[in-house]
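User: Can you write out an input/output pair for a complex, sequences first and structure second?

Assistant: Here is one pair. Inputs:
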Amino acid sequence: MPLHDVGYRAWKGLPRPSGAAGVIASTGIRLAWKSRWLRRVMLFAWSPALMFAGGFFAFEQAIEEGAIGAGRNATRRLDSFGMIGNLVATSLGGQLEDPEAARRTVWSRLLLAFMRAPQAVLLAVVVGLVAPKLIAGDLRARAWLVYFTRPVSRVDYILGKVGVLAAIVTLITLLPAVVLWLVGVLVSPSLSVAAATWDLPLRVIGAAAAVTVPTVLLALAYSSLTAESRIATFAWFATWLACWIAHGALTGADAAASARTRGTAAIAVDPFDDSSPAFMPRTSPRLSWLARAAGIDNTVDRWAWLSLYHAQGVVQAWIFGIEKRLAVVLPSLASLLAVTVGSILVLLVRVDAPARA
Amino acid sequence: MTEPGIDTLPVRLDGVEKRYGRRLVLDRVSLEIPPGITGLVGPNGAGKSTLVRAILGLVRLAAGRVQVLGLDPAVSPRQVRQLIGVVPEDDASIPGLSGVEMVQYAARLSGLPATEALRRAHEVLDWCDAGQERYRGVETLSVGMRQKVAFAAAIVHDPQIVILDEPTNGLDPLERRAMLGRLVALARDHGKTILISTHVLRDVQSICDRVTLLVRGRVRLAGSIADLTGTADRDLRLRATGPLDALVKRLGARGIPARLADTGGAVLLHAAEPTAFVAVWEEVGRAGVEAWALEPERRPLEDVFLAALQAADEADAQRGSHASA
């Protein structure tokens, strides 16, 4: 008999069942965080931020040293940071004569590049590690009985599971991007830069949401379709890979067709007939990957809507104000919306299906 | 204690019908579950689990109405589930949580604040005699301990109604007795309404006030255990040790029909009037028998159950032959 057994006593408190989603999310995060693999990947996911912080520093250093701006001094461009900053600005399409305009463009493109190139790929990996177990694990352990025999609705349950993934995704996309902006402000000549670029953190939130919402919901929808988390994991990575391959194949086919018809080198077809020189490659080979990720050197990607990664990139570029043509954005936006709505419908039907059977 | 609805009857089902496709799982079930312990028995596939789901508002009914303390689960599922605690038959747990974390989690899902949930989880686990095993992961716990954790999770928010599906499954005799004792304490000392869905008729007979037999989705039998298992002739059972056959002869000589019980250790007195008690006690003394209980004879619930099942089969067969004719 336990020392402190006081027998059964009635509980006189007032229940507050409205916070079930928060309870599910916080417990899910705690359980997910027990995975050593996840902790390692999360730690690794922050490492690209260091490199991009270097980009911010180099650019601000270039402005400080006069390597960018009307009064730039050719002799000072020999300074290494100034040169790198200049290179970054050139790569990212900054208007070098006006430091303020260059700052906005370069920061936006750096943030977009950061969120697209390393973080979106890492996000796919992290979500693939965590999401499949979230609902499939509950189905396997019959944990749905724990939830749906209590005052927990389907929406609470879905929101709770989304909360788990959203927290993790926020930690590897939104948070480091906001930290990068802060770093930019701190290494800039004046704190007034924060006021001049106040909208960038908001755009970062929007861009993170564009990634998080469809990605997380799709991963959870897969997880809800099976009690075997391995199958959900496979479906998740297979989808990313298949979409990527399909996008690459179709874009390549377009490029080949374009080369045949125009007799030029492999330049992707622009279905919107946008032949502005602004879309011609103009980046040094050293930073061409950064330019590509930042939305430069791209003609209209008419197959972006096919691939989650590319569709998210187009929408993010739109959110950062880099892609302004609605005709380019709409197919990708519609694709992400379709994924989101479809996933929500699957989740609503599937999550409490065993309880209703 | 019964605040939520106007109806003071904990659970009321009225003409409830549930179909899965063309299969009729609940066929016009009308049932009242009063405070106390009610046993829900029936063969596999009788519709017991569906009935429980109907009470929880988890399934959409084809017809009929369910009321839980005056609330309709289809309209107010959250409120209804706040009033109910469920111990599922199958192991249902969150892998990665310890026993106490599991109970605390259940409490928080039911709306208890975090610290209060932890305090309450320890309190009910203490009452369930969970010991230090509560700190082990739920997936590593023994069957008995998992059952304790599931029970603690069901009652942690102090529900007015507790529904248990095979609560003594996998428990050793000591644990089984302890579990049944807890149920009796909840019902008698704390006024809870308890519904036990089980195949173990011995458990039902030992602790339930009422029993409902469900066969092929229909209620075939419902009533108090005393009424259902009592003999029509008010037979008595005299539990005793010593020369019982001599006692039977002596009672026969006094005009009191008696025979030895098949189980041994008892004499059955047929249709004994209270006026005959004095004569019985006199003969007990004379025969040198040591008597320690005189109680109404009860038919085993199993006999009642089997008879009702047979009657249900016959009724269905008759209905089938009428339909084909």
